[in-house]
Amino acid sequence: xxxxxxxxxxxxxxxxxxxxxxxxxxxxxxxxxxxxxxxxxxxxxxxxxxxxxxxxxxxxxxxxxxxxxxxxxxxxxxxxxxxxxxxxxxxxxxxxxxxxxxxxxxxxxxxxxxxxxxxxxxxxxxxxxxxxxxxxxxxxxxxxxxxxxxxxxxxxxxxxxxxxxxxxxxxxxxxxxxxxxxxxxxxxxxxxxxxxxxxxxxxxxxxxxxxxxxxxxxxxxxxxxxxxxxxxxxxxxxxxxxxxxxxxxxxxxxxxxxxxxxxxxxxxxxxxxxxxxxxxxxxxxxxxxxx
Length: 291
Hints:
This protein has 291 residues and is α+β, with helices and mostly antiparallel strands. The chain has helices at residues 3-12, 15-20, 22-51, 61-70, 89-93, 141-157, 189-199, 222-230, 242-245, 261-278, and strands spanning 162-167, 171-179, 206-210, 216-219, 234-236, 252-255.
């Protein structure tokens, strides 16, 4: 052992030295004891968040910290048909004009159909604000490809109304279904304000996109969103309705991945319900693509 090592070794076992530094040592030991479990938990959460894949937030540690901060304003009632503190659907719907109180699900000449109740338990959805994903009951790649193809088919069948392009809400790795917003010169100020409020000002016209595990974000009317949540098909996005719907509206929900052909049919009808809702007032009927 060197002279320098001998010197510090002697100092560390000297009772006078230990007594003189007792408080700082105890403080450092206490901080370490408290911080170690917290840091381990934070690292575990960060790895769990990374496992969801890119989407909605920058895919790195600062992005994770940003979504952690958003928990302060995120909803905790995402599986309740009506967002708190609302007691009546009519009060939520009134925020979005006459279309907000209507249902557009399985719409026919006799009016809308009823959303059936989903069988089984809801999938596991971690409490991260963004990205919002399910981690159980994921759809196989073939189903996800069919979902994306359906969004493209809706756009192709309604080329004057919709288009498929890169998602603004999820980022460049995702494609989304967009409403072709009218130019300011072709719409009144009141109509433009109502339409953008219905869509959420942060979306710029985007109203549906498919995630890698088969869940789907779609903007529904408040009436259809409440019905889909109550029937077990969906849950609300954590920032829905936040800041006066300047991000996304109350009807922005995550529909769970379809597990079979019957559930795929419900997915189709929910996307079409969203398309009819956001296009309300355009004077053009939304055409359902051939199956």
